[in-house]
């Protein structure tokens, strides 16, 4: 049996409570942003051929550092390490990028990177430090020593890496595997003729993009059935426990308890890709700054338009021909209805099969089997994924009855079993399939003897004379 270690939070067929999901690893089992679940689950499904076992690493590999025991287990127990990545070439990911590089250098098995990208402003300036450039070169070199090619998210990243000395013989633009999460050939078309006041609209947003706030609040007022589909760990913390973003949250964004989208319970957080897709399939349209919010709508067959504000979102939209508008192009009167009317999904549909072939050919070049190959389909995986017991969407603390009562009971149960001496303590805690080896605490030094203390005191007094 082929064993594949996959950079992913968990098996998509494994359900976790919202509380346990957020509590794991400091940034949630989804790695700080549930958008990671989209491309991790897509890769998980693609590689789950009969006779292969895919094991999620729970994002621990980039935290392992010099854990020799962990690295030894990876070398001894797995045949390949596959890393679906997002915008990993960015300043805020510098630490994990270095840790991954350190681990990869110690691996004796193949390493395959799927869909990595750089992050830059839309004016073409990367703004990257010398430290990040050095770390990017080191990562690419370590991977290429164990891989045929590195898979990139888009053309902007290709040009960036070309400037660092990595040409087309080293890289391949393959887009993001999340586009093929549920199927490889599904198309998208308008569900309604026009967006109106009663339309079921999904909104995605990046809370730190302050320029989008006018559009957000205008849309919240114009479309009563609009739902903000949140993605970050901070959003989930706010929705579960009411903890606001920082000391002074932006009052114009739904990052605090007083924002209308929070108080009206028009926020949802999905912990699993399947439940996210199921919800999106019931909606009319999705719009916003989150690329994977747009992708998950399209995978569900729901039209979506991306509002691009940086290169990491724009290059995926360009490659997959996802309808998009630049944030700078929005005006004070732009509406959701306007973007819907202006968007066209024909190019996305027409090129989907060809782009999927690029991805699968890249996998084959790197020696990976996938479910689209003849005789490698795995309907049992899809059946298990469809029938898996997974939690529903998380609501805000203003959820109506009976959702509110059930939600509060669940959270009280979580608190009681993770504190004190309850026999049920840690019942729902997530234990990764390949945990890090617990480090033994250093033995405390015995206190110095009375004689030693006296000698030291005398020496200090003599030295002071």
Kindly describe this structure.
By secondary structure, the protein is α/β, with parallel strands linked by helices. α4 packs parallel to α5. The chain has helices spanning 18-23, 35-47, 68-77, 94-106, 130-144, 155-162, 213-222, 233-241, 260-263, 273-280, 291-299, 311-320, 336-342, 346-365, 379-387, 403-417, 450-464; strands spanning 2-6, 52-56, 80-84, 111-114, 150-152, 171-173, 201-204, 227-230, 267-269, 285-288, 304-308, 324-326. It is globular. The N and C termini lie far apart (75 Å). It has 2 domains: 2-182 and 350-387, 3-Layer(aba) Sandwich (Rossmann fold), CATH 3.40.50; 201-349, Rossmann fold, CATH 3.40.50. The strands form 3 sheets. The protein has a 6-stranded parallel sheet with strand order 9-8-7-10-11-12, sandwiched between helices. The protein is 39% helix and 10% strand.
Question: Which CATH-level-2 architecture of the largest domain?
Answer: 3-Layer(aba) Sandwich
SSE pattern: EHHEHEHEHEHEEHEHHEHEHEHEHHHHH
CATH class of the largest domain: Alpha Beta
Structural class: alpha/beta
Helix proportion of residues, in percent?
Answer: 25-40%
Strand order of the largest sheet: 9-8-7-10-11-12
Domains (count)? 2
Oligomeric state of this protein: single chain
Q: Can you tell me the CATH topology of the largest domain?
A: Rossmann fold
Poorly predicted tracts of residues: none
Note the main sheet: 6 strands, parallel
Q: Could you give the count of β-strands?
A: 12
Can you count the helices?
Answer: 17
Cα distance spanning the termini: 75 Å
What is the molecular shape?
A: globular
Strand residues, percent = 5-15%
């Amino acid at each position: 049996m082929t064993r594949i270690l996959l950079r992913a939070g968990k098996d998509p067929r494994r359900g976790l409570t919202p509380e346990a999901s957020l509590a794991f690893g400091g940034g949630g089992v989804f790695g700080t942003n549930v958008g990671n679940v989209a491309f991790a689950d897509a890769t998980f499904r693609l590689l789950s051929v009969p006779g292969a076992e895919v094991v999620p690493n729970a994002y621990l590999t980039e935290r392992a550092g010099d854990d020799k025991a962990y690295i030894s287990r990876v070398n001894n127990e797995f045949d390949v390490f596959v890393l679906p990545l997002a915008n990993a070439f960015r300043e805020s990911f510098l630490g994990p990028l270095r840790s991954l590089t350190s681990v990869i250098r110690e691996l004796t098995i193949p390493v395959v990177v799927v869909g990595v990208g750089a992050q830059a402003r839309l004016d073409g300036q990367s703004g990257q430090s010398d430290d990040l450039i050095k770390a990017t070169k080191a990562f690419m070199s370590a991977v290429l020593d164990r891989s045929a090619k590195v898979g990139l998210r888009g053309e902007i990243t290709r040009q960036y890496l070309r400037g660092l000395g990595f040409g087309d013989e080293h890289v391949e633009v393959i887009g993001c595997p999340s586009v093929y999460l549920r199927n490889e050939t599904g198309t998208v078309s308008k569900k309604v003729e026009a967006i109106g006041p009663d339309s079921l609209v999904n909104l995605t947003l990046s809370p730190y993009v302050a320029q989008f706030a006018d559009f957000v609040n205008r849309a919240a007022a114009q479309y009563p059935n609009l739902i903000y589909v949140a993605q970050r760990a901070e959003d989930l913390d706010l929705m579960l426990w009411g903890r606001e973003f920082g000391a002074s949250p932006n009052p114009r964004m739904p990052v605090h308890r007083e924002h209308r989208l929070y108080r009206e319970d028009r926020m949802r957080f999905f912990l699993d890709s399947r439940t996210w897709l199921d919800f999106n399939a019931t909606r009319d349209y999705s719009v916003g700054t989150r690329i994977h919010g747009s992708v998950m709508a399209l995978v569900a067959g729901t039209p979506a338009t991306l509002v691009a504000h940086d290169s990491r979102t724009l290059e995926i939209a360009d490659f997959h021909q996802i309808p998009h508008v630049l944030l700078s192009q929005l005006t004070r009167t732009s509406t959701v209805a306007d973007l819907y009317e202006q968007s066209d999904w024909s190019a996305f549909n027409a090129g989907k099969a060809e782009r999927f072939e690029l991805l699968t050919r890249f996998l084959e070049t790197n020696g990976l089997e996938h479910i689209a190959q003849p005789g490698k389909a795995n309907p049992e995986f899809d059946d298990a994924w469809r029938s898996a017991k997974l939690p529903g969407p998380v609501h805000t603390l203003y959820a109506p009855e009976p959702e509110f009562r059930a939600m509060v009971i669940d959270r009280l149960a979580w608190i009681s079993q993770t504190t004190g001496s309850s026999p049920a303590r840690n019942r729902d805690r997530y234990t990764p399939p390949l945990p890090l080896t617990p480090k033994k605490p250093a033995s405390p030094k015995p206190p110095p003897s009375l004689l030693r203390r006296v000698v030291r005191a005398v020496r200090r007094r003599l030295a002071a004379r």
